[in-house]
Amino acid sequence: MKVPFAALLTGLVGLCPSFAAWAEPAQGSFVASQRCEAFQSIRKQSNPDGLEVQPGRRYEVVEVNKRDYDWLRVRMPDSATPLRWVSAGCGMVEGLAFNTAQAAQPAAAGDICSRSDQHDGYVLAATWQPGFCEHASYKGAKPECEGLESGELQISHLTLHGLWPNRQSCGKGYGHCDGPGLELSTDTLAYVRPWMPNFRYGTSFGRYQWDKHGVCQTQMDDDAYFRRAVDLVRQLDESKAGQYIVANIGGAISRRGFYQKVEEDFGSRDAQNNFLLICSGKYLQEIRVSLPRELKQADSLVGVVDGRFAASRARDRSECVADRILIEAGGR
């Protein structure tokens, strides 16, 4: 029996290690926001015909390199080798869904880690926006960063990255549960916008946060979820630890000094285990706070945590390690 050349080529590509055998099947759309190379191989960065995605064009997504993806494999209809890898930072993803039946992961773990209400806590991720925008490789996909650079935006407080339901046994893999789409009210959009500056330019990042994290809890609908997340990041910003950062914009803080402020806020040294500082080199980018599963209504994070301190601090390869941490100033 003759095998069509295209099918043979597909089979050979599947055997080639440069084509990321660890990728996970996915379906959705990728809308390019800039010209970026479309690689045959991520590892080799091979692109023999110089193919690029074009701004404003929509491409079919067929795979991602991992659940918390930074590369997407898209179909380029005008190419002889149409399946190409593109950096996720080159555009926006819409309607992404995973084909869990084909995913190479243990069935039980995959079920738990993508099933709603299986979380044992939350992580509040608060961004120091100037530090992120100045030192992260966002490749033009963050209009709020362009606004900071141009002086259109002036940001002098912590901003909301996300509120993530978390299950310790899943590591960073808890997410992408089934749930409703994002439909925020006009009032909620206005409530969120000052604390999540990407919302000044659209809701694509908010939709990503909801689809990946928000739907994994059912205690709050989308409006209540984003409002609660804003309240929590505001409480962090108003805490002694948060104001220690704000007071040193354009200068530096001490890592030890920050954790001392946390201890003063909560009246316990154990509270330091709930906080993690994330840096890009020596610059602050983010603060992550571990919160209990029951998010109690309270006037401060002290009441929300309610003495439920983590046994040890979370680990991350981007954790700030030096004592001196620079606090980038935003805007011109």
Automatic annotation (TrEMBL):
GO molecular function: ribonuclease T2 activity; RNA binding
GO BP annotations listed: RNA catabolic process
Coiled-coil features, chain-numbered ranges: none
Keywords annotated in UniProt: Signal
Gene3D superfamilies: Ribonuclease T2-like
Keyword NADP included in the entry's annotation: no
Cleaved signal peptide residues: 1-23
Pfam families according to UniProt: Ribonuclease_T2
Family, similarity comment: Belongs to the RNase T2 family.
UniProt-recorded name of the protein: Ribonuclease T(2)
Organism annotation: Metapseudomonas lalkuanensis
